[in-house]
């Protein structure tokens, strides 16, 4: 029996040592001890953060897999509440924060906290910013793996320098490649070289400085599919493109006939009128409404259409029913020409109102899970406020009594002098 327990204990200790070898605990000395060419994937956490604890097993899986692949990426984690110097160096503002540190440059991860998504980010950022495609097979493989990819075609030029600079800045968001002309399929028509070609939505588009403006801004605008499923992480990232986001909100499961019709209608308009709207709008559908509910501070009826302005937390709603293509086009045109007014926003009043709304939702959720804790959170501040009011009233009453006593004493003194 003793041998069995000893074996189990030994196995546990061995697993713990293996896990610790995959993920290194970092402290404030990291910036002095790291190598100039080191690449680190770091998770900043707080001991009390529940989201950080949920990420722990995923983080150890990432460390284990990168180690087994022989990746040059070192995986670490740091308690930001204890190692405040390191957290300040990386400008950590929330938990968990995931950052890649590569050759003295910081790359912040803002996607889903899943193993596959973080691994994709790690492979993309840790390697060359612009990957070379040397054969048609490699090109087809890249096309099968990525919904959106930018490819530079041609010899060395100023355009290639601009492309490389854009890739270094935007590598956290999308994929960059280079290829010779004969690597691309013959059906891809390029009128001149060098060229930057965008592949997405089953087709391709060629960059034109005259039409599209600065290369980096064009890449940033076009790094999402024209129509796709959007979650809260993606919606937040879309705000960085400067575009409005045209959404159709749908049920998560068992979509009704009307939801299916709305989705098809939005997708058709996004495809058929791409040239008209792609510079101003991104299109997609959401099967979750928490973010939009918080934006509008009410429960959104689904299915429904809404246009969101992520730059100022504003939103636009149709002024009437939208059941046809013409009605949807009128809605989008009304947003662009200003005939449909933006609601919401991030003004002081809106921020305070949104804070109250979010607090209300939090308390409702907390009450459903733990009524006693919710009651304590509400009663404790009230009790503290009542206690302070009591102390203030008592202090004022004592002061009034002292003043009355002083006045009485002075009155007696005056009376005594008059008697004399």
TrEMBL record:
Topology class, membrane: Single-pass membrane protein
One term of GO molecular function: protein disulfide isomerase activity
GO cellular component: cell surface; endoplasmic reticulum membrane
Ranges of Low complexity composition bias in the record: 408-420
TM helices/strands, residue ranges: 370-393
Entry protein name: protein disulfide-isomerase
Disordered as annotated region, ranges: 400-420
Top-level taxonomic group: Eukaryota
Chief localization: endoplasmic reticulum
Keyword Nucleotidyltransferase among UniProt keywords: no
Signal peptide stretch: 1-21
InterPro entries: PDI_TMX3, Thioredoxin-like_sf, Thioredoxin_domain
Record's keyword terms, sorted: Disulfide bond, Endoplasmic reticulum, Glycoprotein, Isomerase, Membrane, Redox-active center, Signal, Transmembrane, Transmembrane helix
Originating species: Pleuronectes platessa
